[in-house]
Write the structure tokens for this entry.
Amino acid sequence: MSTSLPRPINALHAGITAALLVGLCSAPSPAAAASPLSVNVINYQQQDGTIRGKVITSDGQPAEHATVRIKGKTATRVDKNGSFSFNGLEAGTYILSVTFTGQEPQERTVTLQAGETAVADFSLAASMQALNEILIVGDKYTITSRKQSDNVARLPLKNLENPQVYSVVDKELIKEQMAVTLEESFRNVPGAAPSKTAAGIPAFFSRGFNTTDNLRNGMATFTRTTIDLATVDRVEAIKGPSSALFGGSMVSFGGLVNYLTKKPYDHLGGEITYTQGSYDLSRIAADINTPVNEDKSLLFRINTAYQKENTFQDQGHGTTFVIAPSFAYKVDDRLTLRLDADFQNYSGTSSSAWIIGAGVKATSWDQLKLDYKRSLIDNSFSGKQMSSNIFAQAEYKLSDKWTSTTNYAWATGGYNDLYYFNLTWTTDTTVARNIGTYAPDKMGRKHVQQNFTGDFLIGNMRNRLVVGVDFMDQYRNLKYLFMNLDTVNILRAQKDIRVQQLEDSMSLKSAAESMSRQYTYAAYFSNVLNLTENLLVMASLRVDYFVNKGSKNNLTQLTTGNYNQTALSPKFGIVYQPVPNKVSLFGNYMNGFKNVANVTQPDGTVSEFKPQQANQWEGGVKLDLLNNKLNATISYYNIEVTNSTRPEDRDGKRFTVQDGTQQSKGIEVEVVGNPFPGFNFVSGYGYNDNEYKLADVRFIGKRAVGTPKHVGNIWLSYSILNGAVKGLGIGGGVMYVSDAFYDNTNTFILPAYTVIDATVFYNTTKFRLSLKANNIANEKYWVSDGFYARPQKLSNFLTSIAYKF
């Protein structure tokens, strides 16, 4: 039975997308039916010939990222539909080979006549060693395929072809480490020091800058909860300023985080997991997938998790619930529709945010005398945080060379009576208890994006091009009240504090609601040209028009802060592979920008500023050695920030000028390996040196807050693959973060810390048992977002059982 859309709808979609590519793409070639391992020849009236086909794995799935090579000539990668093609070939006999991790390689001979198209389809068979290892360990360390990503460059580039540095943390590594939230995955990213924003949103410091917003499937979010990894398939940390493709609203000069959600597949399967742990942690999660119709053109998957946990301190608790449905509908061979969503809710206390005041004589958090387990808050201050994301995609194959992808993302987040404790040390023994109340805070983003992606020849040179436009509409309606509660001496008993006291005081005050809105209109392209098989160059450019409608006060009805701004963001890269598919030398120039609002000066004039700019130069080497068993990236970067604003005193008045500069440079190393069956490791190191060059006189020559010089991480694991205890495994890891400064004057320190974790697990086809110990050495340490600091968990344990079907 046919499941395609009505012909008028299908024709309309094809007509609209094709019209936007007039002159760029040719009419599609007729489809050629071919059974596995078959070779058919179809006549065309053309001078050059083509070899094309599909590659599927042993379980019938498209072998995305498999490599198809013409012996002695060139190679290409299989796309997400399992397709590949070689165009512009002369008549003759060619030897094709296909390699894909976990599958037996295949080779065949194809004879091509002048002006003809040969169709060569491959059906791969799994290797016995791979079947055994994947069963026990999972596929996380199929090193080469793990690093492949169409999201980093918005183009189908292999890691060794991409002049940009990025890291990938996939679901198998997440599962082995028993990670629950997004920030836990950051421990596997070289040079990334985990942090949290004011309200507890996951973030990290990278290359001297704080990365706070997170992209979801390459599109905008507005998350106001943590991000539960029950919904996440893999996490991509893309390093350096990336505004050329991702804009300026959601990316840091140090990089960005893009997490990819779990998608449906074409057979019944799933997993149910129950976890218990320290601090009364109780968690249940489910992942269920099923085809909806008989021909498996409509697929459905749902992920959900419910968790309750207390904090390690004397007060604090939270309950998290997330549900994430996902649909995929393959209308026909050309059109695929996708729809997914996730809804996350958190109710409980907000973690205490600590601030150092001017009267403190201590120079480090570990010198303060407050008991590490004391919170100075009360469990009655319980609020609600919400996040919702909806994502829709229409992918249409215009021809063998061009694909149209239409993306729509709608994200909302908010706080409802979120009580945010600001605990300020006024002296070494006294703390002012203040509280910020969001009642309520609502925000949202709508993001529409249209991409046209091509993979075609210019002469004998392969050319990959993405041309895109996007539009973002974002708003925030904020009602916020800040109140001083009291000041307490930590050496004495403290009086009780309850939420009712706050509510009584709030009833006597009036808080204005601030309503703000911004629009972004952008167009961009990115082009990768293979000058030779081993030498490629990249050029990208984005034009971004930002419209800030300002903030309206609902009490005064006045609007302030409205302005418009245009930014250009270029990107260039070069890659040379002296040893094809094994050694890659790369260099890049990358730009990032941030919009800067107008400022009313003390003399009443209004200064209109340019966007703040960051320009990175980077070079390094990428390696893929030992038959895809060892992958490494080593790079040096230098980031120069210009157009920063800074204060300047003139005639006793403080003006704002825009000539501030900042520099950040360093080295990053990542080595991931599977040197022998059952043993795997992930390791990274980052060194960063940054300083303010031209800034407020108090900050010149100082480091940016929260940015450590050294960050190192390693995780190792071993699984027994044979014998009576097959499936038994152990793992362990260490993360080290050096000292960082809490303040811009570099007088107060966030102490260095080392966190050691270990796990034991037993994995079979039907169930998995896991035991994990976190922070084994019971290290006391703090993380900061650049303003607030928070103490982190002491030693804690997790145990879980998972049933798979």
